[in-house]
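2024-03-11 09:14:02 INFO queue: dequeued item Enamine deaminase RidA (YjgF/YER057c/UK114 family), len=134
2024-03-11 09:14:02 INFO validating residues
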Amino acid sequence: MPVQYLSPNEMIPDVPYRHVAVGTGERLVFIAGQVAHMPDGSRIPEDLSGQVGQALRNVKRGLEAAGASFSDVVRLTVYVTDWQASKMEAFMEGVESVADEIGLQLPMPPASLIAVVQLFEPGVLVEIEATAVL
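2024-03-11 09:14:37 INFO prediction written
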């Protein structure tokens, strides 16, 4: 496996992601920000949890197209509109609801969650980017 995950004892404990990923592959894969658009064009979920789950499914599709999976991911960057700490439960519900389905190990790879005022389209609450090593 080209990725080794670490969470040194001296770093903040009890977070839903690992602090360090070491990639030792030959190719880098960059997945552009994915939102909760549905493959069939139906309406996106309106809640944060539903959008997180669908955005992660879309990240998986991008990874698969490149011959990768979540086990190859060294970094996730998540943008959330109007972020407040009180939204963490809904965010994690979305992650946990699809983790087994998409092959996302918990805790997640190293990740950053960035609060934004808005994203490119009304109603979009979350956008997720991924970087993988193959």
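2024-03-11 09:14:37 INFO annotate: The mean pLDDT is 94.
2024-03-11 09:14:38 INFO item closed
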